[in-house]
Amino acid sequence: MSSDVLHVSILRPSVLHILRAAGFHATRPAALETLVDLASRYLTLLAKQTASHAFTNHNEAVPTIMDVRMALQDVGALRPQIGSMEEQSVGGEDTRGMEGFLRWMSGDENREIRRVAGMIGTEGEVDVEASNEREDFLTVLKKKHSKTGEESRFQGTVVGKGADVRPVRVEGSHIESIESWEARLREHGQILKPPSTRHSSAAPLSSAGSPLTDV
Q1: 176 sits in which H/E element
Q2: Which helix (H) or strand (E) holds 142?
Q3: Distance in angstroms (rounded) separating the CA atoms of residues 114 and 134
Q4: Contact 75/46 with Cβ under 8 angstroms?
Q5: What is the DSSP letter of 177?
Q6: What is the pLDDT of residues 132-151, one digit of tens each?
Q7: Are 66 and 46 in contact (CB under 8 A)?
Q8: Integer Rg of the chain from CA
Q9: How far is CA 41 from CA 8, 12, 48, 79, in A?
Q10: Sign of torsion, CA 38 43 48 50?
Q11: pTM for the predicted model, two decimal places
Q12: Dist. CA 54–CA 52, nearest whole Å
């Protein structure tokens, strides 16, 4: 399974949660895949814009909240919003878009999406996990497929934590790494360097007899 297919598979339940929160109880597969594709393109654009602002503003790959806000403004998530030139002319910052976004984040619509996704309890339900943060569906699914309940099974994969890069030690030898072992073999001529194709020519092959010409 490619990374693109895996990412789309992880995104699909989130889109289903949003549809259910909006009042839909069924959908056709074609309609669902269209919405998943739109959400994937939108999130990819948002991530690219955030990374672009991070490198432009402070020349590093770790974005700040300001980079995210500028990316949200680029993709049209903060509306209404006037441009920076207009803000300078009126002598103040336009925060209507950000205020509207915050109202949506803390409003009933987003709360319903979080409830459907299992992130918050249903009204009238005794929440035994009130003191702890609820887990999303992907975390629950990972624990379900891990007998020990640890994330070590998924370490180094796209759904787990990144694995630490450690040198592979060659047992039974004083050589400490595979790179050192390869360099030593090259010194003794046991590994030949790949031939350079810079000055290669197809002339010798074309002059050789071909069985197809005799047919």
Answers
A1: none
A2: helix 137-144
A3: 10
A4: yes
A5: S
A6: 566 766 777 777 777 665 56
A7: no
A8: 28
A9: 11, 13, 11, 20
A10: positive
A11: 0.58
A12: 5
